[in-house]
Amino acid sequence: MMAGSPVRARVLVVDDLEGPREAISMMLRMKYEVWTAHDARSALRFLRRQQVELVVQDLGLPDCDGIRLLRRIKMLHRGVPVIVVSGLGTIQSAEDAMKAGAAAYLLKPFNLEEMLVLIGELVKPPPKPVRPVYISKAAPSNSPERAVHSGSKPA
Length: 155
Hints:
Elements: E1 10-14, H1 18-28, E2 33-37, H2 40-49, E3 54-58, H3 66-76, E4 82-86, H4 91-99, E5 104-107, H5 112-122, E6 133-135, E7 148-150
Parallel strand pairs: 1-2, 1-3, 3-4, 4-5
Antiparallel strand pairs: 6-7
Helix pairs in contact: 2-3
């Protein structure tokens, strides 16, 4: 990353199938720093070392049930939104994912542009701190002597 360039949010994409994993990754690289994992073990190893702002994970992974992986991700990084994707989704798996803390559940094939919008809604920069404004009660509100202080409460 070049000096002075804004810090980009990190997204981890977890899918055992290279095609969907790469399609999602290529689309997200325009706006985010993207990391990939092909199984749950690799994803968890990465998440133990790195902080991310979002995880996109497949439900059907070869080494771990997707709901179990979702629960483990939420234990490691409670506030990180997780989008679960599945090619063989059922109503039950969608309910299980949402109960386990998924921010969204998408069936493959999904519209990549819609996913980008969803991710943009989930990964927002923290709001700028608001400086509190304190108004002195010493003078009447219509008096020119009424003081307005910004940032810290007057002594």
